[in-house]
Amino acid sequence: MTSRCHSVLLAVGTVCLLAAGDWPQLLGPTRNGISTETGLLAKWPSQGPPLIWDKQVGEGFSSPVVAGNRLILFHRVGNEEVVECLDAATGKGQWKYSYATNYRDPLGKGDGPRSTPLIAGNRVYTLGPSGLLTCLELDTGKKLWSRALLNDYRVRPSYFGVGTSPLLEGDSLLLNVGGRGAGIVALHKDTGKEIWRATEHDASYASPVAATLDGVRHAIFFTREGLVSLDPADGAVRFTKRWRSRNDASVNAASPLVIGDSIFLTACYGTGAVLLRARKNGVEEIWKSDEVLSCHFGTPVYHNGFLYGFHGRQEEGGVLRCIELTSGKVRWTKEGFGCGSLIEVGGKLIILAENGELVLAEANPEKYQEISRAAVLTNPCRALIALADGKLYARDTKKLGCWNLKP
Q1: Do 353 and 377 touch, CB atoms closer than 8 A?
Q2: Average pLDDT value for residue range 267-290
Q3: With a threshold of 0.90, does the pTM exceed it?
Q4: Contact 6, 14 (CB under 8 A)
């Protein structure tokens, strides 16, 4: 590919020194969809929270990320993949970097990026659907390095291109590449040079997390084959557990959740969910079921002993569900959300339904308790939402919006 510059932790990796309210990576600062912000609106007007700004965007399902006053948008415009830095408060452009692409989704599910950028210090990392990993300078958009991962690691073609998002742990950028002898790789954050490689696992669409379990640091991946835990320092495999569909035409896409000493995995295609108890060198099953919370691609959120997430295949219309973590008991189900996106903050759920409705609800295990609802975007909404400094960022396939959630 050619490139040009137009202008220039429940479970959390080492990202950077974060300002309060930053959302610098997939699923937020702690990489689990939980925000610690306070002082947000208790309910919204009938038309939704106040819109601060919006912007037309190109194709893709990559989510916006925010650090300080900078928002990074990764999308496809025509035959280019574009990384844009916007002023998070106003939407005004600060710099733009783009490169040519000829990627075409083999199943016609969209040609734009799926992977969410990572902001770490003064660096931005993006991963395109054709496997181009790029490191840019956050202040200017200057390209620092790039790697064509599918070529470098001889990766077999996948159903929907590359969709996993990178994780930074120390100086290592960790990725489920899916190459021969390089299922998982660690690259140096400053140069892109390989530090280690491990496993033969094909790549999934789930993204890794890092966590300390039983006093030991783990990099935890949900690959196409299942769970893999590695030592992030050298790639030594600590434990694995196969968890995938018998159907080859399937994907694992929801990221693993680490909750205390437990790991929760979920997938569709007859795979289902499993809760595991983890130790430094192994896991044991607590429960498993395909009838509880089988998430197609969205990652559930955890609050006070319960999980909230979207159960069921996207094509069949996913439902919002609350389950008890330790037992897998379904507490309630609410239809009409599709496979959306959600954040837990202050005991409430901020939900973007697949049809573009923005919903505020209580994280209440006893019943579904809705507070506010408004149509703000159009179907389909598949990029995850982001919450930073009291502002909610959400996009569909044509527009990115910023809403004020503070009084």
Answers
A1: no
A2: 94
A3: yes
A4: no
